[in-house]
Amino acid sequence: MQYSTRTFTRGDVALRVRLAGDGPLLCLLPGLGRPAEDLDPLAERLVEAGYGVALPDPRGSGGSTGPLDGLTLHDLAGDVAAVIEGLDAESIVLIGHGFGNRVARTVAADHPALVRLVVLLGCSGKVQPSPEIAEAIRLAQAVDTPDDIRAKAVQAAWYGQGRDISVWMSGWSQPVMKAYLAAAAATDIADWWTAGSAEVLIVQGLADVSAPPENGRSLKAEIGSRARLIEIENVSHALPVEAPDEVAEVILAGLASISQEA
Q1: 104 vs 217: CA distance, rounded Å
Q2: Contact call for residues 221 and 200 (beta carbons, < 8 A)
Q3: pLDDT (0 to 100) of residue 112
Q4: Which residues touch 260 (CB under 8 Å, ≥6 apart)?
């Protein structure tokens, strides 16, 4: 799929965005320390269904630059808001994977006029992984982990059984992970957990041990009819990478349902 590229500035931050498709715009945000290209397989399926997509490189990765010290989630949300405003988009759909859905929820809370719907892929934030899985995550992301140990850790932490783990064997940005984890720690969870007043579609892999499904269920219970919860069998935390067909199907069904109700 061919992308066009635009760059938007916000103070000393420059944000590169890849764009494709001509339909209603969906903005996709990747997981912690991951490149926006992780979401290309999902984006391709959404474009084939008639939507337009915007994939910003998070600050500090890909073609986006800016300070990484002293951030909060509100700063990262401001980056996304600047992209949406730069695209002259009206009331957009934000799709956030993993850490990206924390940023998406912060955008919805801080800039409610810009967000119509938030789609959470691998909802996280309250229910933490077990100590064993936390150690697997550490090994999977560490630069000095031998490949054989990394493969086992990647499988255990993020992928359903029988899935191709190759994409997440590499591609982690250590500076971005460090800065973004600090940003999350510096932000009260109450600022973003409920996504402001936006409609929410929660897409959760039932095999997700990194962001356990109880996170999505807890959010659904808390915000009630504002949220829809869809759980997918044998899909773990890398859901848009390991199962783009299943995830796209769920998102498209959710978008169609919401459009019919509007």
Answers
A1: 18
A2: no
A3: 98
A4: none
For residue range 3-21, what is the model confidence (pLDDT) as tens digits? Answer: 999 999 999 999 999 999 9
Phi, psi torsion values for 14, nearest 5 degrees:
-120, 130
- Which residues form the domain of 249? 4-128+173-261
Instruction: Please state the φ and ψ torsions of residue 92, each to the nearest 5 degrees.
Output: -85, 165
Q: Residue 35 and residue 33: Cα distance in Å, rounded?
A: 7
Question: Judging by beta carbons within 10 Å of its beta carbon (0-12, 13-18, 19+), is residue 30 exposed, middle or buried?
Answer: buried
162: left (phi over 0), alpha (psi -120 to 50) or beta: left
Could you tell me if residue 145 is inside a domain?
Answer: no
Give 56's Cβ-side CA count (13 Å radius).
34
* Beta-ladder partners of 20: 53
Q: Grade residue 260 by pLDDT with cuts at 50, 70 and 90.
A: low
DSSP class of residue 148 equals H
> For residue 133, is it within any domain?
no
Residue 204 included in any domain: yes
Question: Considering the entire predicted model, what is its pTM?
Answer: 0.96
CATH number at residue 30: 3.40.50.1820
